[in-house]
Design goal:
alpha/beta, binds iron/sulfur cluster, five-stranded parallel sheet, single chain, 12 strands, 330 residues, flat, 12 helices, four-stranded parallel sheet
Length: 330
């Protein structure tokens, strides 16, 4: 089949957010400065390429803490954990490095505060996502998880005047607005964060897709099938009337998706490394195909590494390696 592609439009921003960069750096630095082996509970971020690369560098990924030997070092993933897991680690004498994204921690703190003030808490999110499981664990007896506006109808709380809402950080901005409106209509006294908890990276990547959707015939979203924010990017494009496909990498592209296509959009979820974008663009490119970046906003967010990592390095007489140098590796 002869390619009809004339232009590839790259969404900006795309790919790694500050929370993912920090989580990857945590594992890489831990492998470098801690007593091996370094265990990681759950996928550090939801991307197979990242997990495989870190595994090759020496990280051991486990699903639950009972797979980690007593006294070993374990990293908690960017999605956060419930207090029960933290307590289990403490009881087992594990050395913990917490790579939970600070923006997820913020949602946990909000849940703790509302629970202390005896609110019923509506957590808008996906029941089976690691982040929601972690947040739910802060106050399981008070938190109700809902995913859509339709779920609001079925919701029952003991005191409708004492209710708060929180959101998973990686939801669709538009869908969440509908759910919050439905909650406000049913519970006029509901309180919540000043906007919602959807993080800057999720919002910016969705805004970039909205901008791109009008200008392309098809959008390719690079990300894993368990990456919430990548799946949302596909949904945002389809809601705007533009075909979109989620791919792990360039090998997943079906030639029939590109039949008669002049302009292809490419973006990547917040846990997708840029190398997969570069490979995808190379696979789509032929002589004469233009590549253009469409930027909606610049990002300059960066989170510091957890203090416990510095402490562990000090104990071994080491200093933390440069994060900028490490960044080149994935
Ligand atoms: S997507 Fe947002 S909440 Fe999740 S790790 Fe990235 S910055 Fe943190």
């Amino acid at each position: 089949m002869t390619s009809t592609i004339a232009e590839i439009l790259l969404a900006g921003p795309r790919g790694f957010c500050a929370g993912v960069e920090r989580a990857i750096d945590v594992v890489e630095v831990a492998i470098e400065v801690c007593e091996p082996p370094v265990y990681v509970r759950k996928e550090i971020v939801h991307n197979q390429h990242v997990v495989e690369t870190l595994r090759q560098k020496g990280a051991i990924f486990v699903d639950e803490l009972d797979e980690v030997p007593d006294g070993a070092t374990v990293v908690f993933s960017a999605h956060g954990i419930s207090p029960a897991v933290r307590e289990d680690a403490r009881r087992r004498g594990l050395r913990v490095i917490d790579a939970t994204c600070p923006l997820v921690t913020k949602v946990h703190l909000e849940a703790i505060r509302y629970a202390r003030e005896r609110y019923s808490i509506v957590l808008i999110g996906h029941q089976d996502h690691d982040e929601v499981i972690g947040t739910l664990g802060e106050a399981p007896e008070r938190i109700h998880v809902i995913a859509s506006a339709a779920d609001v109808d079925k919701l029952e709380v003991p005191d409708p005047s004492k209710i708060a809402y929180l959101t998973q950080t990686t939801l669709s901005v538009d869908d969440t607005r509908d759910v919050i409106e439905a909650l406000r209509a049913k519970y006029p006294k509901i309180v919540g964060p000043s906007r919602d908890d959807i993080c800057y990276a999720t919002q910016n990547r969705q805004a970039a897709v909205k901008r791109l959707a009008d200008d392309v015939d098809v959008l390719l979203v690079i990300g894993s099938s368990n990456s919430s924010n990548a799946i949302r990017l596909v949904e945002v494009s389809r809601s705007a009337g533009t075909r979109a496909h989620l791919i792990n990498d360039a090998r997943d592209i079906h030639p029939e998706w590109l039949e008669g296509v002049r302009r292809v959009g490419v973006t990547a979820g917040a846990s997708t490394p840029e190398v997969l974008v570069t490979e995808t663009v190379a696979a789509l490119s032929r002589a004469g195909v233009a590549v253009r970046e469409v930027h909606v906003v610049e990002e300059d967010v960066r989170f510091a590494l957890p203090q416990e990592l510095e402490q562990m390095a000090r104990e071994r007489g080491r200093t933390l390696p440069s994060r900028t140098a490490m960044r080149q590796s994935i």
